[in-house]
Amino acid sequence: MTTPVPVPEPAGDPLRFLTFNVCGGLCETGFSLARWTSVLLRETKDADAFFLQELCGRQFDALRNRLSGQYHAEYVVTVRKNRSCGRNWGDRRFGIAVFVKGPALARGVWALPNPHRDEPRALLCVDAVLAHRPTRLCTTHVDYKGHNREMHVNFIDTVIRGWTGPLVIGGDLNLSPGTLPIRNLYRRFREIDPMARVTFPEQDLKIDYILLSNHFSRFTASGRGWLPWLSDHRVLRGSARPSDM
Length: 245
What we know:
Oligomer: single chain
Distance between the termini: 26 Å
């Protein structure tokens, strides 16, 4: 993938972003697929782009079908035989997804390092036109185990270091803001929620992020509370304006 080149255009509305670890496998909601999809449609309504993690294959298919014609959707299967996805939804695919309004230009996938053959992880990026300019939109879900977390975030930091165009990363980084890998990202990116509100209530942690390059400014963020019957993570949502608008 080549770095998108900004194309200045007239001012518009703020761009709305959302990231959510939907806990599609481990969390047994008891919902039908149709009801789950309706809940997600309400949560993601009006987002210009949103990022989902721990998303089972049938969940992705249902959302993509309901949003056909409104969003471009990309999905990466990181685990092809996830038992929990099979139990909950009858399809063992498990992965991460990006949904974006506006024309999509390209996609790229990077496998995260996995020297100990733990659960495979990936970085998924989609180049799309938002607010009249090419923007790169990425999602990931790094490992929660030991040093894998730092290794994965450091790897992502290395991959994106040379990118110079507008960039938004939404995902579950499984590290809190005070850790060194996150502090390194904060040197070049702004987090959409400067208050660093908790996104993983069971352990009172912030581990979910929407990081924006310096092509954006005037951030707002909200959490809208925790929906424990849906996921063990809070939804993180917010808005930002392209900085040249």
